[in-house]
Amino acid sequence: MGAPGAGKGTQATALAERYGVPAISTGDIFRFNIKNQTPLGVKVKEIIDAGQYVPDDVTEEIVADRLAEPDCEPGFLLDGFPRTMHQVYFLDRYLADRGQQLDAVVSLHVDPEVLVERLLNRAELEGRADDNPDTIRRRMEVYAGQTAPLLFHYESKGLLVDLEGTGTVDEVRERMFEQLDQHIAQR
Ligand code: AMP
Predict the structure, then answer these.
(1) Is residue 93 annotated as a catalytic residue, yes or no?
(2) What's the pLDDT score for residue 127?
(3) Could you report the per-residue pLDDT of 139-173, keeping only the tens digit for each?
(4) If you average pLDDT over every residue of the chain, what do you get?
(5) DSSP assignment, residue 143?
(6) Tens-digit pLDDT profile for residues 16-46
(7) Active-site option among 31, 66, 118, 139
(8) Choice from 34, 46, 83 to test ligand 1 binding pocket (greatest atom count within 8 A of CB)
(9) For residue 166, what pLDDT is reported?
(10) How far apart are CA 83 and CA 122, in angstroms?
(11) In terms of CB atoms within 10 Å, which of 26, 101, 109, 133 comes out highest?
């Protein structure tokens, strides 16, 4: 978990590689569908371009379908899901039904000014439609209002690995591996 620009996608890829599990990014799945103009892509394009969240039922169905794929059996990493309390309860139920559970929830903390700088930089490099100043502001607000409160939930369950996300990609990755190892050793 982390605000837009915190480095979720980059660090999720490193983490998934380390554990040999698939990294599942709901944002990537949506962007793939938008690019290919699928019915899902057509449905979510405007919402995502406006910096809003895709409705829970749509997002949850996508995650359920993806987690049912055989490559997720040994484990998986979710990047950008859950983002609402509804999605948290959905995931809890989904995993409980299958006798599975989360090992850890990694949260990346980055100073808001650094976040905006990173996102504007990414806009130049990747050309994402939702990386423009107005939408960035909206996405930050939506994160603070709807997603940041989830951290309390996962903290109370003893799952939270709270991480300082400032620094180079390599520094953050090493910090994350170290804190995660400690977390897992303590469980
Ligand atoms: P991301 O690549 O994770 O920043 O996601 C890009 C955009 O996709 C977000 O700003 C949302 O509009 C949408 N999105 C991704 N994941 C979710 C989710 N779990 N719930 C609702 N909307 C999502």
Answers:
(1) no
(2) 86
(3) 999 999 999 999 999 999 999 999 999 999 999 99
(4) 95
(5) I
(6) 999 999 999 999 999 999 999 999 999 999 9
(7) 139
(8) 83
(9) 94
(10) 22
(11) 26
Q: Which two tokens stand for residue 184?
A: 């897992």
Contacts of residue 96, defined as CB under 8 A and 6 or more positions apart, other chains included, come to: none
Q: Using CA atoms, how far apart are residues 187 and 184, in angstroms rounded to an integer?
A: 5
Determine the longest span between alpha carbons in the chain, in angstroms: 46
Strand pairing partners for 108? 2, 163
Question: CA nearest 111: which of 19, 6, 39?
Answer: 6
Q: Are 86 and 56 in contact (CB under 8 A)?
A: yes
Ligand 1 pocket test: which of 8, 13, 54, 85 has the largest number of ligand atoms within 8 Å of its C-beta? 54
- Rounded CA Rg of the chain: 16
8: closest CA among 139, 96, 181? 139
pTM over 0.90: yes
- Identify the pLDDT of residue 6: 95
Smallest CA-to-CA distance from 118 within 82, 53, 50, 172 is with 172
Q: Name residue 106's beta-bridge partners.
A: 161
Write phi, then psi, for 106 (nearest 5 degrees).
-95, 130
CB of 136 closer than 8 Å to CB of 51 = yes
Crossing angle (nearest 10°) for helices 112-126 and 133-142: 130
